[in-house]
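Entry for the shared binder. Reason: the reviewer on the internal report wants the predicted structure included alongside the sequence.
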Amino acid sequence: MAKNLLEQLKEITVVVADTGDIQAIETFKPRDATTNPSLITAAAQMPQYQGIVDDTLKAARLSLGEAASAAEVVSLAFDRLAVSFGLKILEIIPGRVSTEVDARLSFDTDATIAKGRDLIAQYRAAGVDSNRILIKIAATWEGIQAAAVLEKEGIHCNLTLLFGIHQAIACAENGITLISPFVGRILDWYKKDTGRDSYAPAEDPGVVSVTEIYNYYKKFGYKTEVMGASFRNVGEITELAGSDLLTIAPSLLAELQATEVELPRKLDPENASKLSIEKISIDKATFEAMHAENRMATDKLAEGISGFATALEALEQLLAARLASLEG
């Protein structure tokens, strides 16, 4: 019996579900799952997950007491909701879940470290092995330095909103567990900048970027894992077959599952080891210079942080409205 694309992909790449939708995770049975503020906000508005939201609000009220203001309860529930979803997801998957630090802390190293420690403490208090958690942090210079501290404490990190080789090298040199380069968002920028409607999968700028990062890591023996993210179409996914991991939205997982054609491996560590690649060392000045020269990375990192911050603000408003409803 012929295998579909999803089955073939799972043989060479760890498939991760990019969603807060627990039912979708149950359907596609990925090893790992990733969430972000936008996904948690979307999931929190789904009727089937109202119980998770309500339970988190009630637990926050119980923890703080009746004298606490609604704003204080919402603030605590907000801090705990992503972990509440993460705990539910971990009941389904065998691997790891990524839970994101507040994007509004992306340029504050100390605050990011504190929030990462707080998130892992919540999981540990719930009896979860910290090896099953990835703390997700934006790949600013400050975020990378925070992640380096957390990694030394045994707290594994996933550096997100990654758009350039300079971010990827800085992560690898700082011993980060995993990075999430954003394939589709890179494509979005280039389509807008060039006026082109489409790119062939092999020429897709996001695919080219992740391929460059993967080959660099394998050439120089870095242990940091590459997890392509933010896909716009199946062609981007199949061009990155062989990547360490790929995190994929449910709609594209369904498309992969419904397609039966042969899937050739495109990324391979042995092939990468034979390439002629110049090694680059990244310090803060080099990072900032390379970032400034990369218009796409500069634009998309700022846009991504802003977008996640907006989603968090929407989530805070949703929690405030729900608490008011619960407490009459």
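Summary line for the report: The chain has one domain: 5-35+103-304.
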